[in-house]
Write a sequence for this structure.
């Protein structure tokens, strides 16, 4: 019989398009988990992203499975379908409410890179976000923190090892027949090749479909 694991009390949430998931995402989650003593980090692939409605995104099921493959070896990393199973555009306020319902007794920590943290005030119901989670902004090469308008005490900034990797660059590399080995986990390299992602137009979905 498998012993019941105690309910996690400190849960990180790593939202992202993950198109594809790469080592920058994984290092960010691992570093924040260590610094804040998190029991679990939940990766939440987005549905349609409000800031990315102008570009085609890979089918949610592919992005979800790549996140599962990338996190499978870490017992503290899990993947949630909350955003991809909710219809319509993904807003972080809905992500946090859904995850709060799954982990009603846990303290939530929302993990973002420097670029995304600066956009928080443009997010839907920005004022309500602070009550639902503590926000942790991590350093990202090429991006500066823009925290002037954020409420003090509601967020933390954390320096992490610099990983100059972006999903955009990974996609462009695959399109140009350049390697993505060591930028993304090995299983993700193989998944991309197996399904022709970033080359085969049928693996894309228009964000509002
Ligand atoms: P894209 O180029 O498609 O926007 P991305 O690499 O920025 O992809 P996202 O899925 O947009 O990846 O990012 C999800 C979250 O991970 C965001 O909060 C982003 O700031 C953070 N993040 C992404 N890459 C890094 C990195 N190399 N270092 C630190 N944080 C990162
Ligand atoms: Mg991004």
């Amino acid at each position: 019989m498998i012993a019941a694991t105690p309910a996690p009390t400190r849960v990180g949430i790593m939202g992202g398009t993950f198109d594809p998931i790469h080592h920058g995402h994984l290092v960010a989650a691992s570093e924040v988990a260590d610094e804040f003593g998190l029991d679990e980090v939940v990766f939440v692939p987005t549905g349609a992203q409000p800031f990315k409605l102008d570009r085609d995104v890979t089918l949610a099921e592919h992005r979800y499975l790549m996140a599962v493959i990338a996190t499978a070896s870490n017992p503290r990393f899990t993947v949630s379908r909350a955003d991809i199973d909710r219809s319509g555009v993904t807003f972080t306020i809905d992500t946090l409410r859904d995850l709060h319902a799954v982990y009603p007794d846990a303290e939530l920590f929302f993990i973002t890179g420097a670029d995304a943290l600066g956009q928080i005030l443009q997010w839907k119901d920005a004022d309500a976000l602070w009550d639902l989670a503590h926000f942790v902004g991590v350093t990202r090469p090429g991006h500066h923190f823009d925290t002037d308008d954020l409420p003090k005490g509601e967020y933390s900034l954390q320096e992490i090892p610099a990983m100059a990797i972006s999903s955009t660059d990974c996609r462009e590399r695959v399109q140009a027949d350049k390697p993505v080995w060591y930028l993304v986990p090995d299983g993700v390299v193989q998944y991309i090749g197996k399904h022709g992602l970033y080359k085969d137009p049928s693996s894309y979905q228009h964000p509002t479909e």
